[in-house]
TrEMBL record:
Single GO MF descriptor: structural molecule activity
Xref: SUPFAM superfamilies: PH domain-like
Residue ranges constituting the Syntrophin split Pleckstrin homology (PH) domain according to the UniProt record: 26-83
Protein name: Gamma-2-syntrophin
GO cellular component labels: dystrophin-associated glycoprotein complex
Lineage of the organism: Eukaryota, Metazoa, Ecdysozoa, Nematoda, Chromadorea
Length: 170
């Protein structure tokens, strides 16, 4: 089965892109590109989690809006399926990028993390967290405001930290 690269919202119900339905009642509300997207249950920039709901945010800044599920079981199923799709597409991006990188510069992970924002740094006083795109590349941990879309962007990270392998024997 080929992984779809978009999430399509039809009249408040999600389904993978590319699935045609003969029912004329379906109307496309929004299409979200899934490569390098992320799913969140938190209210924007806070520690407050949504009850039985989530949101998918794409690289281009588009969002599904808040999607409400009828119960916790349905929520976990949707989150699992969408996260698996995103991770599958990200793995394809890693494989494509690694074809052109030296062995010592190979990418082992890409994905989103949240950085705690110190008071006074953010324009919004309620915002405590800021999404950052993380890449583990060779011996480096690179953090970006948004995913790098070219090899030139890959060298323009916001933060660069060195990773060290440590072996301890007892």
């Amino acid at each position: 089965m080929k992984a779809q690269s978009d999430l399509v919202i039809y009249n408040g119900r999600e389904r993978s892109a590319g699935i045609e339905d003969k029912d004329e009642k379906w109307k496309t509300i929004t299409v979200i590109p899934l490569p390098m997207a992320y799913l969140t249950r938190y209210l924007w920039g806070t520690d407050n989690i949504r009850t039985n709901s989530f949101e998918v945010r794409a690289v281009d800044g588009s969002s599904t809006g808040i999607i409400h599920c009828e119960d916790g079981r349905a929520l976990e199923q949707w989150i699992g399926h969408i996260n698996n799709h995103i991770q599958s597409l990200n793995q394809k991006s890693i494989k494509m990028s690694n074809k052109y990188l030296h062995q010592s510069e190979q990418i082992s992970y890409i994905g989103w993390v949240n950085e705690h924002v110190s008071e006074g740094i953010s324009e919004d006083p309620k915002q405590k967290w800021k999404p950052r795109f993380l890449i583990l590349k060779g011996g480096d941990v690179c953090m970006f405001d948004s995913p790098p879309l070219s090899s030139e962007d890959l060298n323009k990270c916001l933060y660069l930290y060195k990773c060290y392998d440590v072996g301890i024997r007892q």
